[in-house]
Each structure stands twice: as structure tokens, then as C-alpha cells.
Amino acid sequence: MNILEKIIAFKHIEVAEKSSLVPVKLLEQSIYFQSKVVSMKKYVADPEKTGIIAEFKRKSPSKGAINVTASIEKTSIGYMQAGASALSILTDKEFFGGSIEDLKMARKFNFCPILRKDFIVDEYQILESKSIGADCILLIAAALDPKRLKELAAFAKSLGMEVLMEVHDAQELDESLNEHLDLVGINNRSLKTFEVDLKTSFDLVNSIPNEFVKISESGISKPETLVELKNAGFDGFLIGETFMKSSRPHQAAYNFMNEYRKLLRESKGLVLEK
Ligand SMILES: O=P(O)(O)OC[C@@H](O)[C@@H](O)c1c[nH]c2ccccc12
Q1: C-alpha 238 – ligand 1 centre gap (Å)
Q2: Contact predicate 55/79, CB 8 Å
Q3: Rounded distance, CA 218 to CA 222, Å?
Q4: Residue 63 and which of 36, 204, 240, 265 are 20 to 30 A apart at CA?
């Protein structure tokens, strides 16, 4: 079993347990069922913003502990002040050290689009995402057959949420694109082998139809890379570890985004300061 298969098997058990403890009726009483989502599609594609989706990730199966002490309140607010377009919050506890509480806290302190980063295999998890204030869910093509992925995307849309579909090869992209998606992400890290290669993004960007907002995910460590990815056609960039591995992730994000804005101005020939 590869790591993705292991995680997916675990998620099916987790959903069965959770749904018997917290029934759907209870989830639906959350105030967030009445509130409108903040559009990730709109914020990420806004040319006035950086397009960066800044991720809160404490640990990962590939890296182990990344940052176990960072505060969700300080980090999420700091990310947004630094110029992020949106937040991505890991809610998986077992493999990534995240929690639903982290997302609830991020929601409490920020008005911005929030992506629930987890492994979604069931409608229950989408209702739960809505109940904690998430605006967007992630659906992983490598983890779902195309028909099921489409059903789950349609369900999220019926709740007014947005959907980011993640792929890492041309076949997944071909087979799983459907009309219920808002954003398409190219993951530079294989969830099966953990290998990271930015070439994946450059190779696939032109195969994403223009109606979808295009995101490059994982392994981005330099502001220069963002300029290249943007010039290649990406609207958004999902960045976790580069910020989180710092003892002050919000400060790392601030420095990174400042540098990125400077490079962008230079590449447009609009250098105002020395
Ligand atoms: O920390 P990185 O290399 O910047 O990557 C962020 C994000 O792309 C990565 O965490 C991720 C992409 N797809 C996922 C699916 C599940 C869990 C995590 C992920």
C-alpha cells in the first residue's frame, strides 16, 4: 500500500466513526450554513493580490515534524497581512498534525477564502467543512475515481462551496476534469512517492482549460520560481513548508511576499525605488 492508499483507507474509517458521533443534523445547525462563502477563485485570480495560498501545516508524512509550536491565530493573521490571497488549513490529524479546531480558529480571525486541506472521500466531510466555515474543498484525483470525484464536486457546489481539484499527471487531468470544479491544482509532489518536481507544473499548465483558475502546488521555495510560474500561466501558488519551517512562519511569509512583489515590479520594468 502506498501512503495515499493508507491515508484513504484511514479516512473511510474516520468518516464512519465521526458520522456516528456527530450526525449531519447537528452539523447543519452551524451558523456557517447561513453564511456565504468567500470566493477563492475570485481572490486568487485578482491581479491586485499575490495569488499565494498560504498553508498551515504542522507535519507531513514526507517531512515529519515541520513546526509543532506555531500559533494558528498569529500565523493565519500574519499570512494575510503579508499579502496572501487565501489560507489553506490542514485538518487531518493523523498524518499532518492538523485539526478542525485549527480551521475554526483561522475562520474566527480572518475574512478571506479558506481551503480545507484534507482527504475527502465522502459527502459527510463536505458538510463538516461547511459547518466549520471553510469556503473551498480539495478533491484529489489520485484518490477518487472520476465519477465519484464529480459527484463530490457537485455536492460541494450545491452547498455554495468552491472546489479545487488536484492532479499530478496528464491522465488524471484528462479523466477527472468536470464542470463542477473552480480551480485546478498541479501538485509538484507525488502523493505516492513524495518526489517533488516543478517541471510537473510547467508541463501541464497549458492543458488546463482557461475557465479554471490554475494553481501550482508544493515544493515552491523561492520568489523567483513564482515569477516563472506566473509567466507560464499560473494564477495561484500553494505554499506550506517554506513558511512553516521557519520559527516565525508569518515573518517568513512577509519576507517572501515582499521579495516576490519586488521581482514582479522589476520584471514589468516598473522599478520605482532604488
Ligand atoms: O509544503 P509545500 O511543499 O509548500 O506544499 C504545500 C501543499 O501543496 C501540500 O501540503 C499539499 C498538496 N496537496 C496536498 C494534499 C494533501 C495534503 C497536503 C498537500
Answers
A1: 7
A2: no
A3: 12
A4: 204
Chain mean pLDDT for the chain: 96
Contact indicator for 172, 187 with CB cutoff of 8 Å:
no
Q: What is the pTM of this model?
A: 0.97
ipTM exceeding cut-off 0.85 for this assembly: yes
Distances in Å between the alpha carbon of 158 and those of 143, 166, 177?
22, 20, 18
| Confidence band for 191, pLDDT divided at 50, 70 and 90 | confident
CA of 29 to the centre of ligand 1 (A): 31
Distance, in Å, from the CA atom of 88 to the CA atom of 91, rounded to the nearest integer, reads 9
Given a contact cutoff of 8 angstroms between Cβ atoms, the answer to whether 219 and 196 are in contact is yes
Which pLDDT belongs to residue 274? 47
For the CA of 95, the nearest atom of ligand 1? 17
Residue ranges around ligand 1 (CB below 6 Å): 55, 57, 117, 166, 187, 217-220, 238-242
Tens-digit pLDDT profile for residues 228-239: 999 999 999 999
Strand, helix or coil for residue 137: strand
Mean pLDDT over residues 186-191, rounded? 94
- Alpha carbon distance 98, 148 (integer Å): 25
CB atoms within 10 A of CB 101: 12
What residue type is 223 in one-letter code?
P
The answer to whether 6 is a known catalytic residue is no
Cell numbers 511569509 label which residue?
253
In angstroms, the CA 121 to CA 126 distance is 9
26-85, pLDDT tens digit by residue? 999 999 999 999 999 999 999 889 999 999 999 999 999 999 999 999 999 999 999 999
- Active-site residue (options: 60, 85, 129, 187): 187
